[in-house]
Amino acid sequence: MEIIKKPVLTEKASILTEKQNRYAFKVDHRANKIQIKEAIEAMFGVTVVGVNTMVVAGKAKSRFTKAGNVSGRAPKYKKAVITVKDGDTIDFYTTL
């Protein structure tokens, strides 16, 4: 099971990184906080102070076609916000 899927690179996540030394990742929905902490420490070589997880609901999507209005949902996913020790940083662009 691949625990860490990809980093969340949004404006809100980058503000968290700059101000509070926190990083956001999309993770496997079956992973718990301990597994996420171990995976981050092994992958990036940093000391993890805290892990917060949340399940993000998929957005409702709809489009109008010849067959009528087609509606559905984007898939839900689990997001983890990682707090690392002061002085530690994660560089996404060299490790991907």
TrEMBL record:
InterPro entries: Nucleotide-bd_a/b_plait_sf, Ribosomal_uL23-like, Ribosomal_uL23/eL15/eS24_sf. Pfam families: Ribosomal_L23. Keywords: Ribonucleoprotein, Ribosomal protein, RNA-binding, rRNA-binding. GO terms for molecular function: rRNA binding; structural constituent of ribosome. The keyword Ribosomal protein applies. GO terms for cellular component: ribonucleoprotein complex; ribosome. GO terms for biological process: translation. The keyword ATP-binding does not apply. PANTHER family: 60S RIBOSOMAL PROTEIN L23A (PTHR11620). NCBIfam families: PRK05738.2-4. Belongs to the universal ribosomal protein uL23 family. One of the early assembly proteins it binds 23S rRNA. One of the proteins that surrounds the polypeptide exit tunnel on the outside of the ribosome. Forms the main docking site for trigger factor binding to the ribosome. Part of the 50S ribosomal subunit. Contacts protein L29, and trigger factor when it is bound to the ribosome. This is Large ribosomal subunit protein uL23. It comes from Sphingobacterium corticibacter.
